[in-house]
Amino acid sequence: MKNTSKYYLVDASVLPEVFLKVVEAKKILSSGTIKNVNEAVRKVGISRSAYYKYKDHIFPFYETSRGKVITLFFTVEDYAGILSSIINRIADSKANIITINQNIPINGLADVTITIETGQMIRDIKDLLDDISNIEGVKRQEILARE
């Protein structure tokens, strides 16, 4: 049978509330604070049938990025040590850096692409990007590609 699934990246603010509650219930279950589905769905305020209907079809972005190759893009100010700071944050998260490419700075800004493998990461890709965005001199960041 041919797989006809299509995938979209959608902002959570436009999703029906039930989808967000299913993700919340899955997070509670994976954390181990609640051991069974009945308690988790009761806590988030959805039915068991809604949970089971959607649980295999909605995932947080970071969850689908585990064990993947991701290319990150940054625009950074041109000063000594900024690339090292970014690399250190990536290394601290236990991501494996595959490639690094930094373009020649123009008007005091340089574009950097870093490709990482996320299989051994100890934190979510979103948390890593949030952490990197707090580095002084990082002006822009985005995920360019995921495999």
How would you describe this structure to a colleague?
The chain has 147 residues and is an alpha+beta fold. The protein folds into two domains: 12-59, no CATH class; 69-146, 2-Layer Sandwich (Alpha-Beta Plaits). Helices cover 37% and strands 23% of the residues. It is built from six helices and four strands; from the N terminus they run H-H-H-H-E-H-E-E-H-E. The chain has helices at 17-31, 37-44, 48-54, 61-64, 82-92, 125-133, and strands at residues 69-77, 96-102, 109-117, 138-146. Strands 2-3-1-4 form a four-stranded antiparallel sheet, with helices on one face. A hairpin with a 6-residue loop joins strand 2 (96-102) and strand 3. The radius of gyration is 19 Å and the shape is elongated. Belongs to the UPF0735 family.
